Amino acid sequence: MRERLQAAPAEVIQRYMYQPRIFGDLDGDYAAMQQVNRAHLVMLVEQRILEPEVARQILRALDAMDAEGPRALPITTALEDLHLNIESLLMKRLGAETGGRMHTGRSRNDLYATMHRLKARAMLQRITASLLAVRAQLLDMAEAHAETVMTGYTHLQAAQPITFGHYLCAIADGLARDCGRLLDAYPRLNLCPLGAGALATTGFPVDRARSADLLGFDGLVENSLDCVATRDFAAELMAGFCLVTLTLSRMHHDLHLWTTAEFGFLGMRDDIAGVSSMMPQKKNPAAIEQCRAKPAITLSGLVAFVAATAQTPYTNTRQNAEALHHFRDSAAEAEAALELTLVVLKGLQVDAERMEQAAAQNFSTFTELADTMVREGGLPFRAAHSVTGALTRLAIGQGLRGAAEVDATLVAEAVAEVAPGAAPLPDALVRAALDPRENVRRRHVTGGPAPAETRRMVARARRQLEDDTALHAARAGAIAVAAEGLAAAAGGLAA
Hints:
The chain is 67% helix and 5% strand. By secondary structure, it is mainly alpha-helical.
């Protein structure tokens, strides 16, 4: 392979270029490469480009390598990459006349472009499965807590009462959109570059569609130059991974706050908590903290990928391979965030009594009081808003700790101050307006936190989850069927 050159690769070249290329993901690269090798051999025989007996010998040698495992193979960085190591070993075991025929009609460029898509597809399927599991857990919890009243916040200040189920359903909806983006990316990813050669296809009558079918692809990346030039699927998926971790991070921010003693809304099972090396009383939400940091890592990978491939020629380049290191890392971080989130959610301990108590100890029900003044007292909303603002000032000035300590007398004082002549509200109306649970019950507008509406949204979200799960399963099934077909075809030739 290096006949064009008169020297072996320099040691520093081997150390910093070829060693990471070969050993960075040896197991994953080896599995994908052997899959492509077998599909290519089957196609070559079917197209009468390669004699069946030659393919049989090569396939048996590949089977023997699989039995040994990639880490037992005599791999050397002097041969630049994994493919050349496998080809070299084939030629040593079968002779150059036989072992040297596997690469007929193929280049490393289309080989690795195909491998990258196979590996990305497997990563995408794993991440999607984890994402579906997190969505299912959130919806189970949302349904269970459809009546768990809590304070809803804007600007991290008490705003209006909602339920914990309403909050969890919101997160599930955000993740459903994130999942949709990844599911939508699959058809653009699951296209086969094999047969493109180095950039201009080949003079051999290869059947690109057959190779794609054997590998479980839905079709071809058609233009041969585009096949080897682009890794845009990676950027698209990395953007999706970043958004997944972003949604999760925002949820973990809230969970982090709510596990503090100052809030006391949530506790953690011991098996998902950490401890302090110095302070024996501590129970730290370590997994929650780790998930909060993930968007920074997935975003940095996306930025590095774009920077590495920007202003490169639209053809095969080493920059593509370098950039894909960041794809692998970003995918791993997204998968970790989802798996950690699932165990955190299952390990949360919800203090429903504390949540509802806190909602009564702030002024989050005052919006409903203003609305009641409009509905029952005939005030314009802006006047009612002014009255309730004055009421808040009066209550705080008297040292009241929340709406539960406000009575009709104080409300009448605020009305007299801001809207003299307006009729004061009866005590029963004031009490109902300031009750957090009643606030939630009245919010039955589409998308509101009323328990019945939350349950309706959960049911709607479950139907979407079922559809997404079915799509994911169908794709997994198609991949499995293709793998079985490839195994049968290659096995038949090797027999």
